Structure formats: C-alpha cells, structure tokens
Amino acid sequence: MPLMQINAGPDGLTLHHARHSFLPLLRRCLRRPGPIVIMLHGYKFAPGHPVSCPHNHILSLDPDRAGWKVKSWPRALGFGAGQRDEGVAIAFGWPARGTIWQACHEADRAAAQLADLLEILAQLAPGRPVHLLAHSLGARVVLRALPITCRASLGRIILLNGAEFGETARAALESPAGATAEFINVTTRENDLFDFLLERLITPPKAGDSCLAQSLPACANTLTLQLDHPETIAALERAGFSLGTGSFRICHWSAYLRPGVFDLYQALLRQPDLTKLERLRTALPSIPEPRWSRMMSLPRLPLRDRRPHASATLTVDAPSHPVASTL
Asked: Domain range holding 164?
C-alpha cells in the first residue's frame, strides 16, 4: 500500500475509517523502499467531513469529487504508480474547520500528534529521512511539531503558502529536528491578501512579526521560492520544469494547482542530491517581488511559449534529469 491515511483525533493518532491501530499497517508500508512523505492539508478540511474530507480530496490517490481545486497530491508526487521503490505517502488529516481561531487552536493540538508520528517513524525506520509537504495552516502544524520532537530524522520540508509566522519558523529551525532538515518556503504574490488577513486576525508570537512569505529566517538550510516570480519561472524552465506564464491576482491554492509544479516538488523530494539548495539559490532570484506587486500590476494576458518544453517527468531512476546540470 503506497498511501496511509492517519488522522489526529481527540484520543490520539488513528487510522482513517478504522478502529484498529495503525501501527501494523505502518510497519508493513515501511518495508517499501523509497521516500517517506507526510502530506498535510490546510484550512477548511476535516477528516470525515461529507464535502471537505482531505482523504477524498487532495490527499487521495483518486479523489471522489471534481472541481478546480481538486488535485491528487500523492499521485502527483509519484505514488500509486506500482513501482516497487516509490516509497510511502502518509496523508495526515486534522480538523481544520470552524473559525480561523478554532482552526489555529486545532493546528496546535494536531502538532503534538504529528510530533508523536515523527517519533514513531524514527523508531520504526531509524535513520530513514522523512519529508513533509504542507499547505496553508498545515505549515503551522509542521513548524509547531518540530520543537517537541527529539528523535525525528527529517529530510525536506516544503511549505506551500504557509499560514504561520517567522518567529514560529525560527523556533522550529533552532530545534534538534529542524536544525538537520531543509526548509523550502514556496510563496506567491497571489497569496498576499491571505497573509495580510492572517496577520490582522491572529496574534503573532512576537510583536510586529509577519507571515513566512516575508519572514522565514535566511539560513543555510532554508530557501524561499517565489513561485510566480518571472525570473523563477524562467530559471525553472531552463532546468526542465515548465510552470507556464499565467498567474492570478489573488489565489491561495496556486502553490499546488499551478500546472507542472508537482514535477518540481517530486524532484525536490525524490532527488534531493540533484536539487541541492545551494544550486537553487544560484539559479533563482535572491529577492522576491514586493508584497502587493501582483495586485497592483496591470493585467497581463498569458503568453504562448513557442519554445519546445523539456520533459519534467521524474522518477527515482532518472538521475540524469536536466536539473542536475542546471540548478
């Protein structure tokens, strides 16, 4: 089984739609070679919800509903293809509905259970790195879990338009678990309005703090990647990742809905040796565009790119991907 569905519940970690312990299934799944990837959704999802259950939506191999925001994360990351070494995907569900204040409170509770899961993985698969991919308030869950886990062996943490503050990220980076991980902070100017609203509604851990798009600490193991920056798009195009040229003025979900972006995330998680952070820093723009620059810009029509696109389809058996020589 390439995908496990685990939820943070009132009585601890549970297997989705099952009464028995998730540990026997987790042990069997961990026999599969390949990456371990934990995926976390953001606001408005909740396990078991009739419309917004993440396990029937973005965290499903085969979502049971249609819609412009429906995208199978695990399948886009290369899981479910039947490859022996595709690894294990863990869909981590948590109750993120209600008001934004209720959801933040639940995120803090879910963080403690994510920390428990990381500890369990460290015991069952010692030394095997665990990667995390989280959107929106899922970033809050991840960053608040790291300071309370001691034994986790983490690889890369990709945060998509993370709804959290810089000071929380600093505490995560200074923790034993965070100090050895690599953080890739994916931002967009399309998300500026959502960052602004969070900063006005939620009390930051430190006065004057701002959201991750503006305040992730610059360290050797951190990288902020503005996905809708024209220079970023051009650099990734040269490396074989075609993300297109169109953009929204306002969109909270473009960090995972933009065409071609999961080819990049798959490379980051499955081929970390070929996508080293120092190479990315050299190839990508060092300064993001100013906040509000997307909303204040003149309307732009998507341009047709007449150049042939290099394939960005990646597998763990393809170490010669163009990214190796370009980034």
From this structure: 3-326
